[in-house]
UniProtKB/TrEMBL annotation, chain A:
Belongs to the CGI121/TPRKB family. It is found in: Nucleus. This is EKC/KEOPS complex subunit cgi121. GO terms for cellular component: cytosol; EKC/KEOPS complex; nucleus. One of its GO terms (biological process) is tRNA threonylcarbamoyladenosine modification. The lineage of its organism: Eukaryota, Amoebozoa, Evosea, Eumycetozoa, Dictyostelia. Transmembrane segments: none annotated. The keyword Hydrolase does not apply. InterPro entries: CGI121/TPRKB, CGI121/TPRKB_sf.
Automatic annotation (TrEMBL), chain B:
This is non-specific serine/threonine protein kinase. One of its GO terms (cellular component) is cytosol. Keywords: ATP-binding, Hydrolase, Kinase, Nucleotide-binding, Nucleus, Phosphoprotein, Serine/threonine-protein kinase, Transferase, tRNA processing. Pfam families: Kdo (PF06293). InterPro entries: Bud32 (IPR022495), Kinase-like_dom_sf (IPR011009), Prot_kinase_dom (IPR000719), Tyr_kinase_AS (IPR008266). It comes from the Eukaryota. Its EC number is 2.7.11.1. GO terms for molecular function: ATP binding; hydrolase activity; protein serine/threonine kinase activity. Signal peptide: none annotated. Belongs to the protein kinase superfamily. BUD32 family. It is found in: Nucleus. One of its GO terms (biological process) is tRNA processing. It catalyses: L-threonyl-[protein] + ATP = O-phospho-L-threonyl-[protein] + ADP + H(+); L-seryl-[protein] + ATP = O-phospho-L-seryl-[protein] + ADP + H(+).
Amino acid sequence: MKTYPIVLYPGYEITILLYKDVLNTKDIMTELLKGQLEWAIINCKPIINHQQLLLAATKAVATLATGKLTTNNIHTELIFRLSPNTNIRESLKNFGLQNEDKEFYIVLFNGKQEKFDQIKSMVQGEQIDQSSHSLDTLNPFFDKELSRKLYGINDKELKATNEDIDLLKNSIFNTMAIKGLL
Amino acid sequence: MTTLATTNNNEIKSIENITSLPNSVLLSQGAEAKTYKIDLYGIKCIVKERFVKAYRHPTLDQKISGKRILQEVRSLNKCKKNGIDVPALLLVDVPSNRIYMEYIDGITVKQYLYNCFDQSKETSTTTTQTQTEAHQQQIDICAEIGKQIARIHDLNIVHGDLTTSNMLLRNNSKSNIVFIDFGLSYTSTMTEDKAVDMYVLERAFISTHPNSELLFKEILDSYQKNSPSPKVAKAILDKLDQVRLRGRKKLAFG
Ligand SMILES: Nc1ncnc2c1ncn2[C@@H]1O[C@H](COP(=O)(O)OP(=O)(O)O)[C@@H](O)[C@H]1O
Ligand SMILES: [Mg+2]
């Protein structure tokens, strides 16, 4: 579990939890669809590191500040902001939780102990110790091919032969940043 | 109290002053924008903040700078998607007139050329070999400039402010030119617009780097030779001759 301040919006912070070997994803999905959860459950495969979550979270708060959330709450907005797609359903499908997922991130804005306890009792799975993770530690479940597909990152952009992870990271961030502005 | 509710959000504001962030420095204060360097979630980041001009109408001004920001980020994105090295966007905050982008670690092409000129000068400590090397480095970088601008123009992007200060060298390497400052850029397929873009560069280049006519010719040669569409590039350079003539007449007859 890691908590970071959203530096551009004082007073806001996010807490990131990472789970694996989850056995009850279907039950969690049921709860999720009721719209009761006060946190975001995020497909961890296209997430390269915590920076990506923080940039999307910043954008979600920025959108909240304008009073024009695209989705119905800040946590869904976070998922929407991770996606390059402006279609909400597509975004939730690609970056939210799916029935067959066994690992995922849970992200809360301004989380409190009571909510952490609720999450703990909700998820039957192993919480991964991220205490040694820094902002740019590569997510162990990162799926490069999936990420490139979802973000539409071609060889030309990565200069074909260069397999540098930094280039891919920059392309992901860039694609998130330009969302809705083209 | 912070709120996560979707109503009553007047109190949610992005930080007013970028310099209140830890590790932030003001890098430059231009005519239209301030540029800061900050640490954003462990990422070295540039913030370019366009300021509102007091003498213009505030809402009109908001609209104009909003448009400019959009032009800038769209051009950056188009370049990036096409494999031209530009800073990656990190966040775009239109209401605050701020663009957050990747910080490029490296000197400007202007500085690089100055360093070469210093080395190519005859002094008691320079050898003929360092002079020749310095000269070759100047030629190489000019060839690279020409090639990359040809690629940008091929995407129908007119940069609008081509100068050697608006080109950085990633890791100080002369083969990694990064173009910045797309605030005056726009989309155009017109030969004339691209020719004027080259003319702006020529004027800036010759005045920043005296006695560099031959080096500038290297940029033009490479522009044509390495263009993805050499015939189009040729037409643009022919147009450049006309633009120059017009420029001169303008100077002569006011
Ligand atoms: N992405 C960047 N990385 C590193 N330095 C930058 C970057 N963007 C701008 N700068 C620095 O800030 C200066 C001003 O930025 P620029 O975009 O050219 O704005 P202006 O319109 O004020 O010229 C540049 O000359 C350069 O030194
Ligand atoms: Mg500039």
